[in-house]
Design a protein that fits this description.
By secondary structure, the protein is mainly α. The protein has one domain (3-179). Helix content is 63%, strand content 0%. It is built from ten helices and no strands. Helix 2 packs parallel to helix 4, helix 4 runs antiparallel to helix 5 and helix 4 packs antiparallel against helix 10. The longest helix has 20 residues, at 160-179. The radius of gyration is 16 Å and the shape is globular. It starts with a helix and ends with a helix.
Length: 182
């Protein structure tokens, strides 16, 4: 078992964030993230074998990746984290997925697919956002975003099942080859 897998397993069993100290987004003093390479390798190892039990780690990694936009870290690893969260999402995870697309600059807006914001099912996601009362402003923003995408008569969106197949067979392979250069 490699060291990255050991860290994943340790965090999974303990939820102790101190084991992730070498993976947080930290300014390296030269317009970069000191821990990007370590975090990238941890994310790639996690992608090779993950489950719903890894959601706390996925959410932590996604937040660190989104901090990295200030230092121009590549968006690919944020996209991998968002996809892994999407695959095992509960409805309340829609907020993290929305943040993955729209909370970290224009690169993420362009690269992260909108299907993540649709959740498991667009109609169910919209119903959840209309009925959930604790984040009314954000719910309205997400609803308007979904409806804006739906208003494009030429848009073709993948179903959840189609999107998962697309990501796992095409996009993830491209991401893995792209991050090798970082």
């Amino acid at each position: 078992m490699n060291n990255y897998r050991k860290i994943i397993d340790t965090f999974k069993s303990s939820k102790d964030e101190s084991v992730l100290i070498d993976f947080g987004c930290i300014d390296n003093g030269k317009y970069g993230d000191k821990n990007y390479s370590n975090r990238k390798n941890l994310i790639l190892e996690l992608y090779s074998d993950y489950s719903a039990e890894d959601k706390p780690l996925l959410k932590w990694l996604l937040k660190e990746e989104l901090k990295g936009f200030e230092f121009d870290v590549p968006v690919y690893t944020a996209d991998l984290c968002a996809f892994m969260l999407y695959k095992y999402m509960e409805m309340a995870d829609i907020y993290d997925l929305y943040d993955a697309k729209f909370g970290a600059g224009s690169d993420n807006q362009a690269y992260v697919d909108v299907e993540l914001v649709f959740g498991r099912n667009r109609d169910e996601t919209k119903a959840f956002l209309r009925n959930e009362k604790t984040q009314l402003k954000l719910n309205k923003e997400i609803l308007e975003t979904i409806e804006w995408y739906e208003s494009n008569p030429n848009a073709k969106f993948k179903s959840r099942e189609e999107y998962i197949v697309y990501f796992e067979t095409i996009k993830a392979e491209n991401i893995k080859s792209d991050v090798e250069e970082y």
